[in-house]
Amino acid sequence: MAPSEKPEVDFQEGPAPTELTIKDVVVGDGEEAVAGGVVDVHYVGVEYDTGEEFDSSWNRGQSARFPLDRLIPGWQEGIPGMKVGGRRQLTVPPELAYGPAGAGHQLSGKTLVFVIDLLGVG
Length: 122
What we know:
mainly beta
């Protein structure tokens, strides 16, 4: 059973990592997410530098269902292997998020932190 409350995203000290960082907060025991599959998730996203939240499915009151291959590379690399019922934190450098500064997205050039609850796969 996935955690049922919106997570707090802890502020991380020090410089932003230059590679994808994956940390399991809760290890699930359900079906495993696979590359190219579909995931049903609850998530919170914050900017690494400021800790400011920029997106949250929790705030909308409903989970989000996505094909992994339509998401940012950091999610495509960071979610496979996660099991339903788990909560995982991904720290995603710009190259695996929305690209370098000036790439046309409001989050371009930023390192992002996501806490993701995997609710279902398939």
